[in-house]
Amino acid sequence: KYPQGAEKMLIKAVTGVEVPSGKLPVTVGVVVQNVGSVAAIAEVFETGLPLVERIVTVSGHGLRRPANLIVPVGTKLRDLLAFCDGVTADAAEVIVGGPMMGQAVANLDAPVLKGTTGVVVLQKDEMRQEQTWACIHCGRCLDACPVFLNPSMLGDLARVRRYDEMAEAHLADCMLCGSCAYVCPSNIPLAQLFQASKAALRRQLATVQ
Predict the structure, then answer these.
(1) Is residue 77 scored above 90 in pLDDT?
(2) Residues 43 and 59 in one domain
(3) 131-147: per-residue pLDDT in tens?
(4) What is the separation, in whole angstroms, between the first and last Cα of the chain?
(5) Considering the domain boundaries, does residue 2 fall inside one?
C-alpha cells in the first residue's frame, strides 16, 4: 500500500518495529538505504569515481517514448525529453520525481541531480484542478494519512501560518506523500501547504540559532 517504500513504513512492514514520532530509524537499530545509493557506494570503492551518473525513469502519458536511462548528473531535462522523442501535443506539465511526491518544473534547462530518480510528463487532462473549496471536515485525509496525523487541522494551521502549533502537532512526521491531497474532495493542496510550512519552520530555527 502506498507509500510502502517510505522509510518508516518499510521498517514497520519488514521488522514490525515502529519508529517513534520525531525519532530516526537508527534509534531502533535500523538503517535504510535504497538500492541506487548502495550501488553508487560500491562503484566508488571499485572504480574510485564519485557519483557521476544516475538511472532516471522518464515516463508519463505526455511522453512519446518512455525509457529507463543512465544519464550524467547535470544533464538538462529538455535533453532527456528529446532523447525520448519529445512530448505529445497535449503534454502540459513536467514533474521531477513521482506523480505523488514530485515537483513541477517550468524550466527545462534544470539539470538532473544526484537525487533525481524520475521525470514524469503529464497530459492536460491529468493535471490537478486549480479551483479549491473550503475544507468540509469529511475525515478522508485522516484515514489516508500513513502516519496518523490530522491533515485537516494541519491545513487550517498552515493557512494562518501558525507553524509552532503545527510543530506541536507532529508536522515533522509528515513524509509529504500526498495521500491527503489525493483524497481531498475540496482539492486542497495539503502536501504543498505542509512542504511550505516545513520550510518556514526551518527558517525560524535558523534565525533563532
Answers:
(1) yes
(2) no
(3) 999 999 999 999 999 99
(4) 39
(5) no
Rounded-to-integer distance, Cα 156 and Cα 162, Å? 9
Cα 153 to its chain centre, rounded Å, is: 21
Residue 24, all three cell numbers:
530516526
Q: What is the mean pLDDT of residues 153-158?
A: 97
The domain tally of the chain equals 3
Residue that wins the pLDDT comparison between 129 and 57: 57
Give the pLDDT mean for 96-118.
93
SS (H, E, C) 23-37: CCHHHHCCCCCCHHH
Q: Please, what is the angle between helix 190-208 and helix 151-159, to 10°?
A: 60
pTM of the full structure:
0.80
Which three-class secondary structure state does DSSP give residue 94? strand
Domain that holds residue 196: 140-203
CB-facing half-sphere around the CA of 99: CA atoms within 13 A = 14
209/207 Cα distance (integer angstroms): 5
Which residues, 6 or more positions from 177, have their beta carbon under 8 angstroms from its beta carbon? 2, 3, 6, 100, 101, 146, 191
